[in-house]
Design goal:
Blueprint lengths: L1 H18 L9 H16 L1 E2 L4 E3 L5 E7 L4 E7 L2 E2 L7 E2 H13 L8 E6 L2 E7 L5 E2 H6 L7 H18 L13 E4 L5 E4 L21 E2 H9 L2 H8 L5 H25 L1 H4 E2 L1
Parallel strand pairs: 12-13
Antiparallel strand pairs: 1-3, 2-3, 3-4, 4-8, 5-6, 7-8, 9-10, 10-11
Helix pairs in contact: 5-8, 7-8
This protein binds adenosine-5'-diphosphate and magnesium ion.
The site of magnesium ion has 3 residues, from loops.
Length: about 270
């Protein structure tokens, strides 16, 4: 009997928690609600004893969290060297990237909040469980079942890399920052923006935009500069914000030009 209960509990945990690992693929109203719930959870959850140091460059910790009912894990980064520091690297850039991803309904950056743990402020992100990294995928020659769809996700990522001026993907510099959930249609997550938002009013030279989802393009067109200025001034300085606005403009111009040259069908996908 004891064995049966244990097995039933294990099955429940596997199916319930296994599917509760935040692996949705586009922002629906339900997902927005879930995002908000996760943000609240991250803000309020207790930190269980025992933390594990992670991150090669930055000071970051893997935390176990609980609200008394559900246990989750979080990635807590405390390094905070904002520009004009000569070697910028800050948890604030993670928060800016998450907000920007929300403005665009992109759902590519895991929920991230600002939080104090043991007297230190940092960004606390939901840990994406059961993912493989793009680096591991390439090293092990794992091919996606739907290569066109996977390519489309990477095209969206390319637009976001340019917008945030963060070059993990195109420069193949930090492929472990790209996480893939295979069991959920190869949903992509992008983590680690701690060195992003360089104040360059240009696109990343080796990060070529060739296509974009219709939804992301429309959301870029809709995204008001004043919203970016107001909301992101918590995390970014004036130079970083004006370069970001300029890059948004250049990305829109670039996509418009591609559409004029190749036609909408060839450039925008659903
Ligand atoms: N929220 C997260 N969920 C899952 N894995 C993460 C998360 N944040 C970071 N990681 C993993 O940890 C690795 C190291 O963290 P990162 O922030 O990139 O630090 P560093 O670049 O200093 O090593 C990432 O490349 C990624 O594979
Ligand atoms: Mg990294």
């Amino acid at each position: 009997m004891k064995y049966k209960i244990t097995l039933a509990t294990m099955c429940f945990l596997y199916f319930f928690l296994g599917y509760w690992d935040f692996s949705f693929s586009q922002t629906t109203p339900e997902i927005k609600m879930e995002q908000k719930e996760i943000e609240d959870y991250l803000k309020k959850a207790q930190v269980c004893p025992g933390k594990q140091r992670v991150g090669r460059r930055t000071e970051a910790w893997l935390l176990c969290l609980t609200d008394g009912k559900v246990e989750r894990r979080g990635f807590f980064r405390v390094t905070n060297r904002t520009r004009p520091h000569p070697i910028p690297d800050s948890y604030k850039y993670d928060l800016a990237a998450y907000e920007l991803n929300k403005f665009l309904d992109l759902n590519i950056v895991p929920p991230t909040v600002e939080r104090e743990v043991e007297g230190r402020k940092g960004s606390l992100a939901l840990l994406i469980e059961k993912a493989i990294t793009e680096e591991a995928r390439r090293n092990n020659n794992i091919e996606p079942p739907d290569s066109e769809r996977f390519k489309d996700s990477l095209e969206e990522l390319t637009v976001f890399e340019n917008l945030t001026y963060s070059n993990s993907y195109c420069a193949e510099r930090d492929l472990p920052d790209i996480l893939i959930i295979r069991k959920e249609n190869w949903k992509i997550w992008r983590v680690d923006f701690s060195e992003a938002f360089d104040p360059y009013p240009e696109l990343i030279p080796e990060c070529h935009i060739t296509r974009c989802s219709k939804k992301l393009y429309q959301n870029l067109l809709k995204l008001d500069d004043e919203i970016i200025k107001t909301k992101l001034s918590l995390y970014l300085n004036d130079a970083e914000i004006s370069a970001l606005l300029e890059r948004k403009k250049i990305i829109i111009e670039k996509i418009k030009k591609l559409i004029a040259e190749k036609g909408e069908e060839a450039v925008l996908f659903s």
